[in-house]
Amino acid sequence: MIPHKLLSDWMMFLRTNPEHLQRFSECFWPSQMISKHYALDLLQEHMGNWGEIYERQIYIFGGWYGVFAQLMSERFRSIQIYNIDVDPECEKVFNLLPVDGRKNITHITADMADFEYHTTPDFVINTSTEHVTQETYDAWWNNIPAGTKYLIQSNNFFEIDEHIRCANSLEEFVEMNNIQHNDYKSSIKVGQRPDGSAFFRFMALGEK
Predict the structure, then answer these.
(1) What's 112's domain CATH number?
(2) Model confidence, pTM
């Protein structure tokens, strides 16, 4: 469930910044929203009260305009979230959003491959592993401090040009993303591909 105030803030942003309508609205495809809420439910289920402990440091990579970060901030109000994206336009858009929806969130423009953590992360989330090369992903993964919890997502939607590293199956997703066999893994159907076959979102949650 999206809080009414947050939904109103997004709509007000689009009304006053129509030049961002097409790109920003792509955050709200049904598959995107299903994936975001499923990820939040997984975090709450598997991490217990981690989101209720003051000043947990959460880093979201490939966070785009911060829609997922805002939903997370509403669900877990006491955490500090860093929303990282390589596209500088994302930071410009994020800073145009109403201030109330951005509390506890810091947006950072940076490449995940050589990102330097500002604080010791309690949790890292990568929502866009299909958008980066294997070299970039491996550099990001190797930079995560040992003992850090993580949630990683990808999909099998090869038809989008920006998706350069999708997975055909959950097993392939696990292999290419260095997921440990004892970590939690899931596959959820979120729509259809152009040929009518199922479109799946793959997720893994564990500790490095």
Answers:
(1) 3.40.50.150
(2) 0.92
Query: Do 156 and 200 share a structural domain?
Result: yes
Q: How far apart are CA 135 and CA 122, in angstroms?
A: 24
Confirm if 47 and 53 have CB atoms less than 8 A apart: no
Does residue 149 sit in the same domain as residue 175?
Answer: yes
In the predicted structure, residue 55 carries a pLDDT above the cut 80: no
Residue holding tokens 């090869």? 158
Confidence at 77, pLDDT banded by 50, 70, 90: confident
Residue 185: the pLDDT is 94
Residue 25: how many other CB atoms lie within 10 Å? 11
151 falls within a domain:
yes
Alpha-carbon span 92 to 204, nearest angstrom: 30
Please, is 77 exposed, middle or buried when counting C-beta atoms within 10 Å of its C-beta (0-12, 13-18, 19+)?
exposed
- Enclosing domain of residue 112: 1-11+53-123
Residues 184-203: what's their mean pLDDT?
93
CB 122 within 8 A of CB 58: yes
